[in-house]
Design goal:
Rossmann fold; Dimethylsulfoxide Reductase, domain 2; alpha/beta; 24 helices; 4 domains; single chain; 713 residues; binds molybdenum atom; binds ligand MGD; N-terminal domain of TfIIb
Length: 713
């Protein structure tokens, strides 16, 4: 972009991480070396600030532990012994093993496993889909995050972006529901602080008084997995006290009478017992929310992580239409605005290449799939992992590791580091980092197209994922034109550049400017559903989902890959409260053994499991802790700062106890992201979570639906 007198060149980039903020970067390069990465001061959300995770992003590129060359396993699985080989040797071995597996078991014995280590259009979540579809591999269903929320959102309001987080500055009443924005969406938080300065009330609904709740005007602690009951009780009060915007409801919604009947089953008194929130607080919340317009709700992904999470999201997403909040700039709700981007996922993923009848295996069930817990014929004989770290992030850690230890499983991992998953690989392949590659970022928390341009050469033999799959395609003898497209030809094909949202936006302009706002109206003017225009089948906000009536809705796996239509699926068209699988109320017998609810949340200084292996971030984040209420600690003789074991019949992990009334009695919480191998027990939070069962919508992982016991070690 520019060259200063002191020979520092600046290149425009964008953050690669799985985070709603997708910041605009400036790479500062001297003599071919990345010396610093800063935030673009002109970007309306980044505003020149990077989070603590990305502040030392230049050093991240030069970390001594980076994987720089292909490697082959040179010791027993999991011992982390590898020897360097060439790319040619690595590809030849993959070809030999896969050809043999395909001959003996068929191509479905190969399963990819990918998530969001990188968030680019070329190198992200879906970068290997076309290849594996063409190969005939098992289709991996990717529902680690957002598929529950998106399914619920689309059933209610359709694929709309909803409220722009920048418009939160114009809200007068803001509910942050199950989201620790100060850690996980920190570049949107200033818009809320602006509104607060103008007199808006900020409410946080969360079992934990987290960093965000500490800055709010009102923190409402709630029992995990009971949010649907709270939303239905709010509706109960709003309808009973006639705080409904009848004109809006009549013109722009579907199924009010059904919703009214459902809400009548959730009076505040009953819901107080379910949620732990006093009935009077529920009434106050409902009244204030309905009558203080524009009112806004920022929903967090954490809502989807229990049995009935999807219904909670449907109920919450229905609230703004009931009170007419969508009429106003700054009114409505934001979940993720990704639907405004005209991404052509079919061109990226090529679902047309999936052979009819190919099986689908959910990645969250990886441990079960590898250890005989699912009936799979043929069994999975090869696993190809990229952009993901399932040993840390997937449900039921013990099973995942047991599966990866299988001697007959041929595992290939493409990585930046030898993670706790990569340790089990037969072949390791080195991947580039963001300053070394080109990509147009997929963005899920704001409305800007973000281009990342390479600033430095890749070290060693690292390659971008997009190039990895081109090489694999050639290796396996695929000769479709897809594998000969350049990066820019792909990006041209992967977006609908003629769509209204992209008018005036081109790749050439993005190369100059780095980022451009979609044509969706300015944050101080935009009210996308002031007059309905919902993107549902009826065009209305569907209190009663037409998609559910015939059991014929699409699991929204980021709209990628395939549509899982579920004829006859018993989903109630109207949101209901489905109790958690595991809680003292829903499973008293289990609660006698394991009396405490356990939820996990994101670490302030890690990004999922990334950065958790780097000393500067480890020092900032501190060691693995678990928080519990003083009453629960006292009952177990646990003192603040002592080491405890968190356990159930699925597994255990050890952590330092933080005894604090920042958490509700009966609930415990620990941060996700710590590498099991760095924890004193060699395990981490997913040791106690359950595979094999998902939330009812979108196959979301029930990560926060667990009972545990805690004991001093
Ligand atoms: N610093 C940092 N930022 C991140 C990430 C990271 O790892 N680190 N990860 C990114 C990703 S992938 C995602 S999906 C987002 C997620 O961002 P968030 O949606 O903020 O997710 P969490 O941190 O998991 O949980 C947020 C809050 O939900 C609460 N919670 C848990 N269960 C329930 C419940 O049943 N009801 C209610 N009301 N609250 C509940 C937790 O106590 C926690 O305070 O963050 C992104 N940003
Ligand atoms: N208990 C519990 N578990 C959870 C959650 C929870 O709240 N609680 N949250 C869930 C959520 S919301 C999410 S999104 C998932 C996240 O799960 P993952 O997406 O698996 O999380 P990461 O730790 O970011 O792992 C990504 C890996 O990709 C690698 N990587 C990064 N860039 C590249 C690249 O360009 N190429 C290649 N080949 N590799 C790369 C990184 O080094 C890292 O090891 O975890 C889920 N797991
Ligand atoms: Mo996520």
């Amino acid at each position: 972009m520019s060259t200063h007198a002191n020979e520092i060149r600046t290149v425009r980039g964008a953050c690669p991480q799985d985070c709603p903020d997708t910041c605009a970067f400036l790479y500062h390069v001297k003599d071919g070396k990345l010396v610093e990465v800063t935030g673009d001061p002109n970007h309306p959300m980044t505003c020149g600030r990077l989070c603590v995770k990305l502040k030392s992003f230049a050093e991240h590129h030069y970390h001594p532990d980076r994987l720089l060359h292909p490697m082959r396993r040179a010791g027993p699985k999991g011992t982390g012994q590898f020897e360097r080989i060439s790319w040619n040797e690595a590809l030849a071995e993959i070809k030999d093993r896969w050809t043999d597996i395909i001959e003996r078991y068929g191509s479905q014995a190969i399963m990819p496993h990918a998530y969001l280590g990188h968030q680019g259009t070329l190198n992200g979540l879906t970068s290997g889909d076309a290849f594996f579809n063409r190969l005939g591999a098992t289709v991996a269903e990717k529902t680690y995050c957002e598929s529950g929320s998106s399914t619920a959102w689309i059933m209610t309001v359709g694929p709309t972006g909803g409220l722009d987080v920048e418009s939160l500055a114009y809200s007068r009443y803001i509910i942050v529901w199950a989201m620790n924005m100060v850690s996980t969406n920190q570049h949107a938080w200033p818009f809320i602080l602006d509104a607060q300065k103008q007199g808006a009330k900020v409410v946080v609904i969360d079992p934990v008084r987290n960093r965000t709740a500490k800055q709010a005007d009102w923190h409402i602690p709630i029992r995990p997995g009971t949010d649907a009951a709270l939303a239905l009780a709010m509706m109960n009060v709003i309808i009973a006290e006639d705080l409904v915007d009848h004109d809006y409801v009549e013109k722009y919604t579907l199924g009010f009478e059904d919703l009214k009947r459902r809400a009548a089953q959730f009076p505040p008194g009953r819901v107080a017992d379910i949620t732990g929130i006093p009935a009077e607080h529920i009434r106050t919340l409902a009244r204030e929310y309905a009558t203080t317009q524009p009112s806004a709700i920022r929903q967090g992904v954490a809502l989807e992580r229990s049995h009935g999470g999807g219904d909670a999201i449907r109920a919450i997403t229905a609230l703004p239409a009931l009170v007419g909040a969508w009429r106003h700039v700054g009114g409505g709700t934001v979940e993720m605005p990704i639907w405004e981007f005209p991404t052509n996922f079919d061109a990226i993923c090529r679902p047309d290449w999936i052979k009819p009848g190919t099986r689908v295996v959910n990645e969250l069930d990886l441990g079960l799939a590898l250890t005989g817990g699912l009936e799979l014929d043929p069994p999975i004989k090869s696993l190809f992992v990229y952009n993901s770290n399932p040993v840390s992030q997937a449900l039921e850690q013990g099973k995942t590791i047991e599966g990866l230890l299988r001697d007959d499983l041929f595992t290939v991992v493409s990585e930046l580091f030898i993670t706790d998953t990569a340790r089990y690989a037969d072949i390791l392949l080195p991947a580039t980092m963001q300053a070394e590659q080109y990509d147009l970022m997929v963005t899920w928390g704001h409305l800007y197209m973000m281009l990342n341009q390479p600033a430095i050469d890749p070290p060693g033999e690292c390659i971008p994922n997009v190039e990895l799959f081109r090489r694999l395609a050639k290796t396996m003898g695929l000769d479709d034109p897809y594998w000969n497209m350049t990066d820019d030809e792909m990006l041209q094909a992967f977006y609908d550049w003629d769509s209204p949202q992209l008018q005036g936006i081109t790749l050439d302009l993005l190369k100059e400017r780095g980022w451009m706002r979609l044509n969706v109206g300015a944050p101080d003017k935009r009210a996308p559903h002031a007059e309905g225009h919902f993107k549902t089948p009826s065009g209305k906000c569907e209190f009663s989902a037409s998609a559910a009536k015939d059991g014929n809705f699409v699991v929204a796996v980021w709209r990628s890959m395939y549509e899982d239509r579920q004829p006859g699926n018993p989903v109630d068209p109207v949101p209901d409260y489905l109790p958690p699988y595991e809680s003292p109320l829903s499973d008293p017998e289990r609660a006698r053994l394991y009396p405490l609810s356990f939820i996990s949340s994101k670490a302030h200084s890690f990004l999922n499991s990334q950065y958790a292996n780097e000393p500067v971030h480890q020092r900032r984040q501190g060691e693995q802790t678990v928080m519990m209420h003083p009453d629960d600690a006292a009952a177990r003789g646990i003192e603040d700062g002592s080491y405890v074991r968190v356990f159930n019949d699925r597994g255990s992990f050890e952590a330092r106890a933080v005894v604090s009334d920042d958490i509700m009695p009966g609930v415990t919480t620990a941060n996700l992201g710590y590498w099991p191998s760095h924890n004193r027990s060699g395990t981490s939070v997913n040791a106690v979570s359950a595979g094999g069962r998902h939330a009812t919508l979108g196959q979301a992982g029930a990560f926060c639906d667990n009972l545990v016991e805690v004991a001093q070690v």
